[in-house]
Amino acid sequence: MTRLIHPPAQPVVFEPEFVQGVRQIFEEKIVFNRVLGLRVTDIAAERVRGHISMRPELVGHFAYNRIHGGVISAALDAMGGLAVMAAIGARHLDEPPLQRLQRFAKLGTIDLRIDYLRPGIGEAFDLEAEVLRLGSRVASTRMAFLGTDGKLLASGAAAYIVS
């Protein structure tokens, strides 16, 4: 992804408690993410990364070897939300980790656009997301759905309510 925002002057280092809490919310408590098998591979203030492995329940109805477009859309939406969670966590480093984690309760998607560029054929896929702007009420993100060879299969842009 080409960077549209500048990284912070000092890299933000999240506490293990915060990272563990974000992973638990994202991978376990959000049931749909658990069904998708979506896993967090990297959490940073400026970018998040994830991974999804192909499973029979993720394929399209008529395309037995392709990941379903709805799965791609849902995974990109989830990653955009994760990027917002990381950005909010970085913005409020003065708060204890558990207090920052509670800020995510009101996070919700208000707009989502997905561009499908290539068929989602493969055994596994990587995802990336970054926040373009984090305002006091709305955050804008950009996401990518990649084959393990690095080819861009789908891209997304979304807005999330953060108040």
TrEMBL record:
Q: Name one GO molecular function term.
A: fatty acyl-CoA hydrolase activity
Q: Which residues form the Thioesterase domain?
A: 65-150
* Cross-referenced Gene3D superfamilies: Hotdog Thioesterase
- Please tell me whether the keyword Hydrolase is annotated for this protein: yes
Check the record and name the SUPFAM superfamilies matching this protein: Thioesterase/thiol ester dehydrase-isomerase (SSF54637)
Going by the entry's taxonomy, the superkingdom of the source organism is recorded as Bacteria
Task: Write the record's keywords in alphabetical order, separated by commas.
Answer: Hydrolase
The answer to whether the entry has keyword Translocase is no
The record's section on Pfam families has: 4HBT
Name the InterPro entries on file. Answer: ACOT13, HotDog_dom_sf, PAAI_dom, Thioestr_dom
Spell out the family assignment given in the record's similarity comment.
Belongs to the thioesterase PaaI family.
Q: What is this protein called?
A: Thioesterase domain-containing protein
- Organism ancestry: Bacteria, Pseudomonadati, Pseudomonadota, Betaproteobacteria, Burkholderiales
